[in-house]
Amino acid sequence: MKISGRTDIGAPGEFVFGYLSDFDNWERAALRRGADVTRTDKLKKPGPGMTWHVRFAWKGRERELQIKVVKLDPAGQMTLSFDGPAIEGTLNAELVSLASKRTRLLAQVEAKPRTLAARLFIQSLKLAKSRVQKRYDTRLDQLARDIEIRAGGTGQA
Length: 157
Fold this sequence. Notes:
Layout: E1 2-9, H1 13-20, H2 23-32, E2 36-39, E3 51-58, E4 61-73, E5 77-83, E6 87-99, E7 102-113, H3 116-127, H4 129-153
Antiparallel strand pairs: 1-7, 2-3, 3-4, 4-5, 5-6, 6-7
C-alpha cells in the first residue's frame, strides 16, 4: 500500500531538512510516546547506514521494527526503510524550494505485508483509504506547523 501527501512549510529548505534529519529529536519523541528505541549503528554523524531497533505497543500487541537510513541528501531527499516480522516498507521525503523561506514537503510511505494478518490489515486500510489519507494529510500539516513554529523561534522564518 502506498500513501503520499504534500504540504508547504514557511521555512527555508535547509532548516526543514535539518529538522527532518534531527534523528536524536525523533528518538526522543518516540521514547516520550512509550516506544523503546535503540540505535544499532556506530556512525558519528547522520547519514546512510544509520539504524535503529524499535519496539512499541500498538493495537494491544508488542511490535518490532528495524529502521535504516537508506538515503540522506542535504539537497532535499531522505529515504528510510523499515523492516519487521509482519511488514516492510519505505518512507521517502523530498523537499522542493518554492521561495527563499518557503519549502514543499512531498512524503510517501509504502508498506508491504509479510504475513496473512498484515495482509488483512493492509487490505482494511485500502478499504478506508479516504479516511487514512485524511489522517496522513492532517499529520503532515501538523508537522509543517511544528517546523514553522521552530523556525520562527530561531529567527529562520
